[in-house]
Amino acid sequence: MIISYKVKSDRPDPSLAVFEETLSFRDGFRSVKIPPSVGEGDLTALHFADDFHVNFQFYQLDVPLEVIKEHSFEPTDLAYIVFYQLQLPEKAWLRGEEVVYDQEGVNIYTQSIDATLRFPAGTRRSVVCLRISRRRLQEMMGCQDKDYLGKLLQPSNSFFINEQLTTDMRDVLGELQVPPAARSLQQLFYHTRVLQLIYLLMERLNKRAFLPNKNSDPLHIARIFNARAMLVSDLSSPPTIASLARHVLLSESLLKQSFREMFGVSIYQYFQRMRLDRARRLLAENNRTVKEVAYELGFTNTGHFSRLFERTFHVKPKKFQLDRPELPDPTLFLSS
After folding, report:
1. Using one digit for the tens of pLDDT, what is the confidence trace for 263-301?
2. Domain range holding 196?
């Protein structure tokens, strides 16, 4: 399979051609600077093997940028994994359907999807994109066919799923932005960090219980992401399942099934996850009382909020606020 990228900017620059080539999983090892006409930062591409390519995107844009991703040939047994941490939400178009990505996460999918992505000016992107064969992933992990991961990576299984970015994953993304100065160490540096990211992701996925049911159609993926965006648009008042389903033109049963398959938890669990994560961040800022935070997030009973917070994070909200610890990783507690 060949994947190609076209990059469009309000400030045309011939050096964008190198940017396009480096994005496109070319063989070898290449690291380029972002053209000064569009921003600053680095883009690195590394070919580990014929079925294992990675690119690393760490840059900030001064102008809007449009990236058009296209593929040719039929899908193979390749899997695509994208770790992303964004300063601003990004919009993508899949077959004309708009999708708004959240600011951080991991997408894992098996069918290369043509897409148009638009990055606003001021965007800071920390992104690692992997293209790796399922056979290689299975060999890395020694998967058994009866394991969740073994079933997931079967050649006949087509899927698109999303996982939360954990604190450990964020740490590795941070390390990748400071490669060693010695070029002789750089490939080993990138290789070991990529293996760390793969391990951390598989560790999370292995906790799941629901296999995706061939939910790789781009329009269906867009609708589930749009349902998620509507769900978390107001954390003080969750929409009903019926209103979500009407919004994305799906039946309630299909929406509930597809949401769980893509995000690993039910719609209600996902909403509670986001609401409690927002609560602990507000409490860490220490400029609101526990009661104010509870009411702001739609809890009419402060006692219920406190019990739910303690059951999730193993600490009472008031004590959490007084101690003001480093924020714990919510994915340690808010799993399926």
Report:
1. 999 999 999 999 999 999 899 888 889 999 999 999 999
2. 2-205
